[in-house]
Amino acid sequence: MSEHRFYLAPESWPDAPQGEALLEGQEAVHLAQSLRLGPGTDVTLLDGRGRTGRFSIVECGKRRVRLVCRSVDVSPEPVSRAIIALAFSKAVRRGFFMEKAVELGAWEVWLWQGDHSQGRLPADTRESWQNQMIAGAKQCGNPWLPQIRALSGGITDVLALSEQVDQRILPWELQDGSSMLTPDMAGRPGTTLYVIGPEGGFSARELEAMQAASFRMVSLGQRILRCETAATLCLGIHWWASHLTTNRPS
After folding, report:
1. In what side-by-side order are the strands of the sheet with 147-151?
2. Around Cβ 81, how many Cβ atoms within 10 Å?
3. What is the C-alpha separation between 38 and 65, in angstroms, rounded?
4. Fewer CB within 10 A of the terminal residue: the chain, N end or C end?
5. Is 17 exposed, middle or buried (0-12, 13-18, 19+ CB in 10 A)?
6. 3-state SS class at 247
């Protein structure tokens, strides 16, 4: 595969095995003007849903590139899937976390409005974070782009969606006697949800609601971590644990 990767939305892929595709907008600008690639060059396209294709450039315009498909590979869904529910905060280093979320194989990222969040979820949050994830996928070659949900209803929305997952884990820094998050807890077959609070911490209302919903409370150590650090640590442990064995019991 070529080292040049570009994103093409699933609905824009050709139906036929050797069909043509159009790369438009900023992806086309990057290909034709920034990288100065031309007809006959092979590139890799990702659709973020597990599909990776080798395409040859046929024709280049300023904001429109025509390509023909040479081959397509489809990666299966991962057996172990991690969802990070990250409370919104103005202090979050969004670019850093989104890049790591893609590299470490997050299945979904839920941005939720915490009681102690700094600021409100902006209307364009999902679109802007999606663009950052696309950039990360192109860099690392992950064929699965994490799906993003913006949950303005706060912990109520998180709990409603958590009914669909297999494991619920709550890393919380103000615990005494709680066990550390270990590979035995993380990386299990199915879907695991990790809920990360905002810089201001969880409210008593949120903690009571998650305790009532049978979340497993764990520790990430004695230090208070920034929320994007805690989220990345959970993803890292999950990624590592999911690769230790494919025969772990659920």
Report:
1. 147-151, 108-112, 80-87, 190-196, 167-171, 216-218
2. 23
3. 9
4. C
5. exposed
6. coil
**CATH architecture for residues 80-244:** 3-Layer(aba) Sandwich (3.40)
Q: Output the average pLDDT for the chain.
A: 90
Mean pLDDT of 124-150: 88
Question: 33-37, 121-125, 163-167, 181-185 — which is least confidently predicted?
Answer: 121-125
Give residue 91's pLDDT. Answer: 63
- In CATH terms, is domain 5-74 a member of 2.40.240.20? yes
Within 10 A of 204 (CB to CB), how many other CB atoms are there?
Answer: 8
- The residue extents of the domains of the chain are 5-74, 80-244
Cα R_g (the chain), whole angstroms: 20
Q: What is the DSSP letter of 80?
A: E
**107 neighbors 83 (Cβ within 8 angstroms):** yes
Q: What is the pTM of this model?
A: 0.89
Residues belonging to the chain: 250
The C-alpha atoms of residue 124 and residue 136 are separated, in whole angstroms, by 19
